[in-house]
Every structure is written in C-alpha cells, then in structure tokens.
Amino acid sequence: MLVLTFLETAAVSQLITASIKVYVGRIRPSGLAMNALGKAEWNMSYVSGHSSLSFALLTFTALVAAGKTGIYSPRNFVLNGKTNKRGGTPFVLFLFFVGIPMLAAIFISCSRLVDYKHDFSDVNAGSALGFVTAFSIYFIHYPGLGDQQSHLSHFASSIQQSGVQHGIESTSEVELSHMP
Hints:
- By secondary structure, the chain is mostly helical.
- It has helices at 2-24, 31-36, 49-69, 91-114, 120-141, 154-165, 171-177.
C-alpha cells in the first residue's frame, strides 16, 4: 500500500506539472541558447518538474516517517529537544525523519536555480505544487499525524477494526480468514 501511494504521489505531481508546463509555455532562462542549439523543452520552464517531484516525494517520505514513528502523536510529542514524561521520541529523530528529507528537497530545488534552468518563481511554484500534492495524497490514505493510528493507512486500520469485531487478534489472521 505504501509503495502505491508513493507512486500515486509522483504520478499526480508530474501530471499536474506537465499540464502546467504545456499550458503556460514560459521560456527558460537559458531558453534562447537551447533553442539555437535545437534542444527540446526550451520553452517549458514554469513550473519546475524537479522541484515539484522532489518536494512531493520527500515531503511524502517525511510524513510517512513521522506517522510510522508517532513523532506527533500525543504519547510521543516532542518539545524543546526533550522527551515527555512517558518516554517520547527524542528531538534528534524528528530532525532525522522530517528535517533531512525537507533539506534534500530544498537542495534539489535550489540546484535548478544554480544550473540556470529555472527562474525563482518556477522553483517556488514547483515546490509549492509538490508540497500540496504530498499532503493531499498522504491525508487521503492516512489519518492525521496526531492520531493514535497514524502508523496505519485507512485501509489497514479498517481491516484491523473488522478483525477485532470478529474476534480476530492480528491482521494476519484477518487476511487468512478471508482466503477461500
């Protein structure tokens, strides 16, 4: 399920990005030189595909990691780099699971400016598009990060609840009980 939602995030992000690129048709900062050399895509600058894809996938990765580790759940809430009284998640894990993917997305987006492939507005629009896409797809398939079941998708949670209603303890027993 996780791989499919990851691929869904990438597909939706790139579909929207490609549609906007074709519709807007903005010339790249290096577009005149690219056109003179006969290279394709000299007029497809807005929005940055690298920025939208990197922000979509890495934001989705950060959200999944935060949900799986329960960083934002009430039992593990992180405050000021210290753990709560119940032994919550250390702030270092928050930086590792959320900070590093977001810094990587920012780095990839900034590299498009340095390479002179996009203007600042192209990169910002692509980053915002990827960020919104990741949040949208994540919250379609997973509960909020503060939820006690944030480590499960809505589908897995419903299977687990149906198993409890039928007196089955684990998800594997639910899967076996539905087999012919």
